[in-house]
Every structure is written in structure tokens, then in C-alpha cells.
Write a structure and sequence with these properties.
Bound molecules: zinc ion
Cofactor: Co(2+)
Number of strands: 9
Radius of gyration: 21 Å
GO biological process, one term: cell wall organization
Order of helices and strands: HHHHHHEEHEHHEHHHEHEEHEHEHHHH
Enzyme class: hydrolase
CATH class: Alpha Beta
Strand content: 5-15%
Oligomer: single chain
Helix content: 25-40%
Distance between the termini: 18 Å
CATH superfamily: Glycoside hydrolase/deacetylase
EC number: 3.5.1.41
Number of domains: 1
Number of helices: 19
GO cellular component, one term: side of membrane
């Protein structure tokens, strides 16, 4: 059914019109409305090919591709590194020797240089001086429109570490990120502590997040659509080549599985602890202080010989609001604020060669996108010095009841044969 509906759509609807509808859907600024569940046919019709959303992943027995891939990759995965504690981060019963740190377990030792031969070091900082590798974890957040609008207004791209389950819950939001030229990396399927998984289950956490990431507007394209046999492959979009471990929980066993899937591990140097405000363990003021400390380091020359990465999130409205509030100061403190892949001069971010990122030199010269889906060309960096206060930024995300989201969804639903589940 999904194939027929999408085929109908792609046969009869000009791509520009599809994009116009999606743009309308994604222009809403009301968290409740934005976070009303909808069904995207390409996703809802493929759910039986995935583990249950938000549940710890296992390899599906009937998924031949996954079974074969694991059979191949498992040959390079060490068997003498056993799971640490459980997938909820309970390490009470582990007898790991942190001092000798045989597995290069970052969460316990901050080790980023693997001890297992053949693995590249984690990316914890960026080589370009006075540069911030800019990125956000845990998206796509259903109410991220105001935040993404802000980034767009600032001509700012970032690296988005998407959770597979979130991508299936909010595919239009995921589309927006890739369509606007942000770099997409994986952040696992269900966001648990990776070193607590068995090796096959850890593989599944990667596999089902990575291989279904980034539904692209370009894939609603008759050429591509008719050229492929399996409908689900038409909405895969891109195959990511980077990932960030939830909670930073990675060791050489997990790195080996990531390496087998072509994923580079990206960690961080500083933590804003924005994610922890929601737990009540830190206050909003402490989060702003963490940003301020990071900014002060930039201002006092700490990053004059090599740039840095700070952990920040797309997790909730507070974390996005904080990012908006602090952006002008980050821009002032750092010479360059760029996606992590750009700071690494990684011009081919995905396996698919029809996407590219600008080089670092291109980006800082004003070419902030090169060949991302839907949008291309260069754009000058925004040089206006904003003085927006935290209060003003907070207002950006204030609610604004509007019915345009439902109107847009209704229009989209009509276009797609009333397949949307509101
Ligand atoms: Zn996370």
C-alpha cells in the first residue's frame, strides 16, 4: 500500500509541491501540536522490519541482511571483553580494573585511544584551531522547529546525532534536518548504555538506527523510486558513517562493532550537562555556567592550537532554548562554529556519494552547503552580532496556538491518499 501511495504521489505531484507541503508541516511552533503523532506511510508500513520502537534492539530472525552482516562483522569483535553491568548503566556488580583499563572504556577512564589493534581513535576534539565542532544529541525532537528555524536564520549548520526510534517517530523532522544541510550521525536505536549489551544486540542497536536514518526529500523522486525494487530501500535516504555513544558509553568491543559498520565514534571534550537539567540534578543556572566556562576557555586561548567539542542536546525545549541563548556568545568566542564533519574536512558524510559536506575552507568562506538534499548552493555566513538575551531567546520557543499544522497535515494526508494517522 505504501508503495502504491508513494508511487501515486511521486508520479503525479511535482517535487516542489511535495516540498511546499512538508515545509508547511514543519513550520509549526506549538510543542503540543508539533508533538502530535502522525503516520508517515513509508515508515508505518515498514515497522515490522524493525525492533519495537524504543525497546532494546535484537537482530530480527527473519532479517537476512542483518543476520549476514553480523556474521561477517562478528569475526572482528573481541569475545574476551564481556558486557559491563547492564544496559541501564548499573555497574555495581562489575569488577572492571579501571586503572589498567584493558577495554579502553571511556565512561570509566575517558580513554579515547583504543587498545584493540585496527581501531581509529575516537573523535573528541577537532583539529582546526579556535573552532567549535557544533552538534546536538537525541533528536529529532518533535518540537524542534523554532530551534531549526533559528539555525537556518543564522546560516548555521550542525551535526545531529539522531536516535533511530526518534527518526521513525518523527520522520518529517528528520527530513528537515537533512534537507537543510545538517550533518546526520547515529545515536543508536533505543539510547541505552552500549557496553551493557551482548555483542549481537549491540550490533542490532547500530544496525537498526544506522540503516534507517535520514529520510530524504530527494527520495520522493520518481527516478529513484522506480529504479529500486524494495520499497523500504527507497526511503532509507543516507547511510551514516559516524555515531555517538549514549552517555559516552563505549569500549573496544563496541568500537569494533561500530568499525565493522563503518561508523566513526565521536565523543566530546566538555559537557554542558544540559541533558541533566530535566532530571533535577543540575539547575538551569549551572547549565548556563557550563556554557560560560566553555566560552571563557575559548576566549582565553585554550583552543588556539586545536578546536573543541561540547556535548549539547536537541533533547527538550530547555536544551534547545539554551543552545539558542548561548549561540551568539559561542560565535563571538570561537573563530569558527561548524559541523563536526566539516571541522574534520569530511566532505563525504554518507556512504551514498550524491551527498557532500563543504570542506572546512569552503564552509568558513561562506559555502555552508554543497550538495545536501533539496537545498544547495552557497550562502554567506551571518555576521550580524546578535545581542539577544536568554529571555528573548526563551520567547522564541513560546507557544503560539495555530491550526496551520493540522491544515498542512490534512493537505498532505489528502495528497497521499488519506494515509496519515493523526
Ligand atoms: Zn543521548
Amino acid at each position: 500500500m505504501a508503495g502504491q501511495v508513494l508511487l501515486h504521489l511521486t508520479e503525479h505531484l511535482p517535487r516542489k509541491r511535495v516540498q511546499t507541503v512538508l515545509t508547511a508541516v514543519l513550520s509549526e511552533h506549538h510543542p503540543t501540536v508539533e508533538c502530535t503523532a502522525y503516520g508517515w506511510p513509508a515508515v508505518t508500513n515498514a515497522l515490522n522490519e524493525f525492533p519495537p520502537i524504543w525497546q532494546p534492539a535484537t537482530i530480527l530472525a527473519n532479517d537476512t541482511d542483518a543476520v549476514n552482516s553480523w556474521a561477517n562483522i562478528s569475526k572482528s569483535v573481541p569475545t574476551d571483553i564481556i558486557p559491563h553491568g547492564d544496559i541501564f548503566g548499573d555497574w555495581n556488580d562489575t569488577s572492571y580494573n579501571v586503572a589498567s583499563d584493558p577495554a579502553c572504556w571511556w565512561t570509566r577512564s575517558l580513554c579515547t585511544t583504543p587498545k584493540l589493534a585496527g581501531l581509529p581513535p575516537d573523535v573528541a576534539s577537532v583539529p582546526e584551531p579556535d573552532t567549535m565542532g557544533y552538534g546536538f544529541d537525541d533528536g529529532p525532537n518533535c518540537s524542534h522547529n523554532a530551534f531549526y528555524d533559528y539555525l537556518k536564520d543564522q546560516n548555521q549548520k550542525a551535526t545531529m546525532f539522531f536516535i533511530g526510534s526518534n527518526v521513525l517517530d518523527w520522520p518529517l523532522e528528520a527530513m528537515r534536518a537533512i534537507d537543510e544541510g545538517h550533518e546526520i550521525c547515529a545515536h543508536t536505536w533505543s539510547h541505552h548504555y552500549m557496553t551493557g549489551f551482548s555483542s549481537p544486540d549491540a550490533f542490532a542497536e547500530f544496525y537498526y538506527s544506522k540503516s534507517r536514518h535520514g529520510f530524504s526529500l530527494d527520495l520522493i523522486n520518481p527516478w529513484i523510486f522506480q529504479a529500486s525494487i524494495k520499497a523500504i530501500k527507497l526511503v532509507l535516504g543516507v547511510t551514516v558513517t559516524c555515531w555517538r555513544p549514549p552517555f559516552g558509553d563505549v569500549n573496544d568491543r563496541i568500537r569494533a562493532i561500530a568499525e565493522g559498520l563503518g561508523l566513526r565514534t565521536i565523543i566530546w571534550q566538555y559537557d554542558s550537562f544540559d541533558w541533566e537539567q530535566a532530571t533535577g540534578n543540575v539547575t538551569a543556572q549551572q547549565v548556563y555556567q557550563n556554557y560560560d566556562n566553555f566560552i571563557q576557555r575559548a576566549e582565553n586561548g585554550t583552543f588556539s592550537s586545536g578546536g573543541s567539542i561540547m556535548l549539547t542536546h536537541e533533547l527538550n525545549n530547555f536544551t534547545m532554548q539554551t543552545a539558542v541563548s548561548m549561540y551568539p556568545q559561542l560565535k563571538d568566542a570561537f573563530k569558527y562554529v561548524v559541523p563536526i564533519g566539516v571541522a574534520l574536512n569530511k566532505t563525504q558524510p554518507y556512504v551514498e556519494s550524491n551527498y557532500s559536506l563543504p570542506s572546512f575552507e569552503q564552509y568558513i568562506s561562506g559555502t555552508i552547503t554543497t550538495n545536501s538534499s533539496g537545498s544547495s548552493g552557497s550562502s554567506s555566513s551571518n555576521t550580524s552580532s546578535s545581542t539577544s538575551s536568554k529571555k528573548n531567546a526563551a520567547m522564541m520557543l513560546a507557544t503560539k496556538p495555530d491550526s496551520s499544522f493540522f491544515i498542512a497535515l490534512g493537505l498532505l494526508s489528502a495528497l497521499m491518499g488519506s494515509s496519515l494517522l493523526l
